[in-house]
């Protein structure tokens, strides 16, 4: 009886832990800190991708690659990115470190 109870407890803990681990891993895309940050990337999806190493948007390209990508954009796309970054920098607490870093680099261009 004790063995059944112990086995049941171990299985319950395992199932609960598995769900928690699955929620913490985000393999399908960026981990946004806020709805504002999510909307920033959704509204500018076509132009923002060039700043990241892959579609997960978790790692920025090098400074030179960011500068090249920004310079290759049309005037309207650059204006959209600058405006989005201006909003992000005004409310830094709602944006993750990758977004803040990107916007600092865009602001320096």
Descriptive notes:
Helix 5 (75-90) packs across helix 6. The longest helix has 23 residues, at 2-24. The protein has one domain. It is mainly alpha-helical and 109 residues long. It has helices at residues 2-24, 35-43, 45-48, 63-72, 75-90, 97-108.
Give the tags.
single chain; mainly alpha; 109 residues; 6 helices
**How many strands in all?**
0
Low-confidence stretches: 5-15, 18-27
The end-to-end span amounts to 69 Å
What sequence of helices (H) and strands (E) makes up the elements?
HHHHHH
With helices defined by DSSP (H or I, 4 residues minimum), what is the helix count? 6
Rg to the nearest angstrom? 20 Å
**Number of folding domains?**
1
Helix content: 55-70%
Mean pLDDT: 79
Q: Classify the secondary structure makeup into a structural class.
A: mainly alpha
How would you sum up the major sheet? none
Strand content: under 5%
Shape: globular
């Amino acid at each position: 009886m004790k063995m059944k109870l112990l086995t049941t407890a171990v299985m319950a803990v395992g199932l609960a832990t598995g769900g928690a681990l699955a929620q913490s891993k985000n393999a399908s895309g960026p981990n946004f800190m806020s709805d504002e940050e999510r909307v920033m990337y959704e509204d500018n999806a076509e132009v923002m991708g060039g700043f990241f190493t892959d579609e997960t948007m978790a790692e920025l390209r090098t400074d030179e690659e960011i500068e090249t990508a920004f310079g290759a954009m049309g005037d309207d796309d650059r204006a959209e990115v600058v405006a989005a970054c201006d909003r992000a920098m005004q409310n830094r607490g709602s944006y993750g470190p990758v977004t803040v870093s990107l916007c600092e680099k865009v602001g320096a261009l």
